[in-house]
Structures are given as structure tokens and as C-alpha cells.
Write a structure and sequence with these properties.
Elements: H1 23-29, H2 32-40, H3 49-52, H4 59-71, H5 75-100, H6 104-132, H7 137-150, H8 153-170, E1 174-179, E2 182-187, H9 194-203, H10 225-237, H11 239-250, H12 258-282, E3 287-288, E4 291-293, E5 299-304, H13 307-313, E6 323-327, E7 333-337, H14 344-359, E8 364-365, E9 368-372, E10 377-381, H15 393-407, E11 413-417, H16 425-442, E12 445-449, E13 462-469, E14 477-483, H17 492-498, H18 503-507
Parallel strand pairs: 4-9, 7-12, 7-13, 10-11, 11-12
Antiparallel strand pairs: 1-2, 3-8, 5-6, 5-9, 13-14
Helix pairs in contact: 2-12, 5-6, 6-7, 6-8, 6-11, 8-11
Length: 512
């Protein structure tokens, strides 16, 4: 029977992951799909994308995963995990060759190779984890499981049987008697080795200094019909080891162990994300493990930045502008105003990305962060009208807003970007206020990017943020978003003057 199920390095309890139904929407609006795509590239065989759509609900489970993730940043631990991953790739390669092989005994041979590689990889991992003295609860639980597993009867049988079979098969020697088109196989009885004699015969034709014609042989994993006939006769001469070889393939509990396979996949999820962050750290950007708090709705992050944007620009120092995000006390909503192309949407995306990544138990982009445990992250971004939709843009936004507000709870985070911007100022103000009033009534937290300054003054729980420009040149965006009273300044006149689009210039005589 299979060995008892072992621990997961991603969750120390049976606490379920989040529902994930919000993932499709927010992955598009927050650009998290770009993060997932970059992280899983080169690791497609592990099917890692589903992990990014399964946020955790339990703060203890988040901390459990964070500690495993942090320990994987230790170079010694990373080396032993990478060695295990490389060994397991060889195991899967042999298993796949066994599946593809057309000849039954070649299938068994590849299966035997896979068993040998697997048992060696697991024994080495068990020893390496013990020698490394891992500290995180997840890796310590795995190390303890592997000690028990590698001492179990099924595993010890596997190691012993693989070793004995390989030794016994290596001792098989046979001779071929070729008589015209017929080949007979018999046990080797000390007959002369004619291959050496052939080499001596043709040695006399070797010329000193002659040119060597090298060629690359095509790889060939299969056996031809003649080889199959020879091997079938070998099996008849030595039936016992080949019977044991078949028994090894038929024993379901031999390998691989489900817990080992789960660790192999789970650890790649964490490594894929850590590898994604490595170039950002090298470029001087901060990354931290956040504190996730379930009881309070406060949100605090320093030097936070948009992760997908950083992945695109992070290799160039100074291109990514971090910002602080703060909701404290009774504050619930950040209303962000300011000139176009000033970083408002990037700021809002960042505020949505951090709690979601935190619930995955992963480091977040920033110097430090204390984040609320959000049950859901909702996004309401302006959507272009689609020809296949019977609804107009405004109606679509209203329907989506109603769906979000009905589903939102006091533990939800809402990210609203330029909502209702396609309508009049009066209507945008009316609709925006109605949405914000409902968010405040439900006790949720939100960030609202808008051109309507009045929305930043509707309630003491609403905080006004403004994207800033350079004091010397208002056409230059700083991409800094700070706490300030919304003043409605879009600096359109300065921008128009910079590009020669003032009224006087346009009304004047044309110039070459």
C-alpha cells in the first residue's frame, strides 16, 4: 500500500485556499497575468499557473508559506533543492521514454533507470535536508517525512530490488551464433572475442597522419526487429531477473511517492517567483515579506511599486518610482486625482497587487508592508465597448459596479480606475459618490482614481491623494503620489505650450 500522505510546504493545515473566482478579472486589470506568464516561463511542465489563482484565507498558513519561501533564499538550501529538481527531471525523462518505447523490455529498462534515479534523488534530498538543518516548519516537516519514507518497507524494497536487478542484469553475458540469415543466442562460455581480432585485422590499413572524418550519429532510443529477436532469446535464457523486472513495473507503491511529487511541484512555484524577483533586487528595488493582519483594516506599505511595470523596467535603475500607501485609523478610501499620465493608475494597481500577492504567501514589492487580510480583491476599470455586447460602456460599468458592491464584504479591497469617466462631470460625480457611499457603508477599503476632485471630500474616511509634477517644469511628471488636497490642476496649458498647441499659436499664421 502507498505510504501515508505527507506534508505540503505551501500550507501547514487543511485551511482551504481562496475561491479564485476574482482572478480572471483582476489578473487583467492589475496586470498580474504578466507576472504569472513571466514566472512560469521555462517551467511549463510543472503546471504552476493554478497556484497563482489560489490565495490563502488563513494568516497562519500565509506565515507558514512565507517562512518556507524565505528559507529557499538561503544559497545552501537552494542548491540542494535545485539538485533534487534536476534529478527528478531525469526521472521523468526516463519515465517518458518508457512510455514511448514500443518494445516491452525496453520499456522495463527505462522504468528500471527511472526507479534507480528516483531512489537516489529522494535519499539524497532526505540527507541534504537533515544536514542543512532547515528551520521553517514546512521544510522541517518534509525532512521528517522523508526520513520516515526512506526507512519504510516499500522504499527499502525498491532500493534493494533496483540494486539487485541492475547487478544481476549487468552479469548477463551471451554469445551470438550467426549462420546465414539465422542468429542463435546462447550463454557465453568463454568463446574468443572476435571484435578484438577484427580490430587487429584492419589495424594494418591505418595510415599515420590520415584525415579523420567525424560525423554525428543520430540519437536512436528504439530497438530494431533484429535486436528484439536477440533480446527475446536472452529473456528465455535468463527468465528470473526479467520476471522480477516485470514485477517491479507492476508494483504500484514502488514509486513515485505522491508527497515527493507534490513537493517537486510546490517548490517550483516558490522558486519561479523568487527567480522573477532576483533581477529587481539586483537593480536596487526593495522586496519584503509583508505582515498580514486579519483583525484590522489598516494598510501600510513603504516604497511600494507596480510589479509588472518593474519587471519591464527594473533592469534600468531609477526607472521605477516607488510610493508609500497608507490607510490608518478610520480611513477607508484613497481618492487619487491629478494630471493625466502622472502614475495614478499605476499607484492603484500597486495597491491591489500587494494584498493579493501577500495572500499567496509571497514577497511583495516594497521596503516594508503591513496589509489587511482581504477576502477578495475587486477591480472596476474602464472597459472599451465590445461589438458583441448589447450594452454600452456606461451600462456595462454600472452592471459591473453593482455586482462588485453586492459581493464585497468589510474585508474586501476595491480598485476603481477612472470609473464613469466616459460620462458628464455631473453624472460621474453622482455615480462616483453613490459607489463610494456604498463602499463606506459596507466598511470595505478602496482606492478610486478619478478626475472628479469633489469625491475626495465626501467623508472623513476618504483620503485625498494627488499625483505630482516637477516644480520647475509642470509638463514633467514625477510619478509621485502624495497626500494633498485635490486642486483640479491638470496643467493642460503648460503641456499645450510645450507642444505649440496654444490658442494664439494655432490662430496665428502658418509657418514652415
Amino acid at each position: 500500500m502507498p505510504f501515508l500522505p505527507g506534508p505540503s510546504i505551501l500550507s501547514g493545515s487543511d485551511a482551504p485556499a481562496g475561491p479564485g473566482e476574482e482572478a480572471a478579472e483582476i489578473f487583467t486589470d492589475l496586470n498580474l497575468g504578466q507576472v504569472v506568464g513571466a514566472a512560469v516561463r521555462g517551467r511549463e511542465g510543472y503546471d504552476l499557473a493554478p497556484f497563482f489563482s489560489a490565495p490563502l484565507q488563513d494568516p497562519a498558513a500565509i506565515v507558514y508559506r512565507q517562512r518556507v519561501c524565505a528559507e529557499l533564499e538561503d544559497p545552501g538550501v537552494r542548491r540542494l533543492v535545485d539538485a533534487f529538481a534536476a534529478a527528478m527531471r531525469a526521472v521523468h525523462g526516463s519515465i517518458e521514454r518508457s512510455r514511448r518505447a514500443g518494445y516491452r523490455y525496453q520499456k522495463l529498462a527505462w522504468h528500471l533507470d527511472a526507479a534507480a534515479l528516483y531512489s537516489a534523488a529522494v535519499e539524497r534530498l532526505a540527507g541534504d535536508l537533515g544536514a542543512a538543518g532547515v528551520r521553517s516548519e514546512g521544510l522541517r516537516a518534509l525532512a521528517g517525512y522523508l526520513v520516515a519514507y526512506t526507512s519504510s518497507e516499500p522504499f527499502r524494497w525498491l532500493v534493494g530490488e533496483v540494486g539487485a536487478l541492475r547487478a544481476e542484469l549487468a552479469r548477463i553475458s551471451y554469445a551470438l551464433a550467426i549462420r546465414g540469415p539465422r542468429i542463435a543466442v546462447r550463454r557465453y562460455a568463454g568463446e574468443p572475442d572476435y571484435s578484438a581480432e577484427v580490430e587487429r585485422t584492419f589495424e594494418r590499413f591505418r595510415q599515420a597522419g590520415s584525415r579523420t572524418y567525424d560525423f554525428e550519429a543520430r540519437p536512436h532510443e528504439g530497438v530494431n526487429p533484429l535486436e528484439e529477436q536477440i533480446l527475446d532469446q536472452v529473456v528465455q535464457l535468463w527468465p528470473e531477473p526479467f520476471a522480477r523486472l516485470r514485477a517491479l513495473a507492476e508494483r504500484a507503491d514502488a514509486f513515485p511517492d505522491p508527497t515527493v511529487l507534490r513537493f517537486e511541484r510546490e517548490v517550483q512555484f516558490l522558486l519561479a517567483y523568487l527567480d522573477l524577483l532576483a533581477p529587481l533586487r539586483e537593480a536596487g528595488l526593495n522586496v519584503c515579506f509583508p505582515t498580514v493582519v486579519a483583525e484590522r483594516r489598516e494598510y501600510s506599505a513603504h516604497d511600494a511599486y507596480d510589479l509588472p511595470l518593474a519587471l519591464a523596467l527594473g533592469h534600468r535603475p531609477g526607472q521605477v518610482v516607488p510610493n508609500d500607501i497608507l490607510l490608518s485609523g478610520n480611513e477607508r478610501v484613497l481618492v487619487v486625482t491629478g494630471p493625466n499620465q502622472g502614475g495614478k493608475t499605476t499607484f492603484a494597481r500597486t495597491m491591489g497587487q500587494l494584498p493579493y500577492l501577500a495572500r499567496l504567501g509571497l514577497p511583495v514589492p516594497g521596503r516594508d508592508a503591513q496589509l489587511p487580510l482581504c477576502d477578495r480583491v475587486f477591480t472596476l476599470f474602464e472597459q472599451a465597448e465590445r461589438s458583441e455586447s448589447l450594452r454600452g460602456r456606461l451600462e456595462g460599468e454600472l452592471v459591473r459596479a453593482r455586482q462588485i458592491l453586492r459581493a464585497a464584504s468589510p474585508r474586501s479591497l476595491l480598485v476603481l480606475n477612472e470609473s464613469f469617466s466616459g460620462t458628464s462631470l455631473h453624472d460621474a460625480t453622482f455615480l462616483g459618490r453613490a459607489v463610494l457611499d456604498e463602499i463606506l457603508r459596507r466598511g470595505a477599503i478602496a482606492v478610486y482614481v478619478t478626475f472628479v476632485d469633489e469625491l475626495s471630500r465626501i467623508d472623513p474616511a476618504v483620503v485625498s491623494l494627488v499625483s505630482t509634477v516637477s516644480p520647475e517644469d509642470p509638463t514633467v511628471r514625477t510619478f509621485r503620489v502624495v497626500r494633498a488636497v485635490a486642486d483640479g490642476r491638470a496643467f493642460a496649458t503648460a503641456i499645450a505650450a510645450k507642444y505649440g498647441l496654444t490658442y494664439a499659436r494655432l490662430r496665428g499664421p502658418a509657418t514652415a
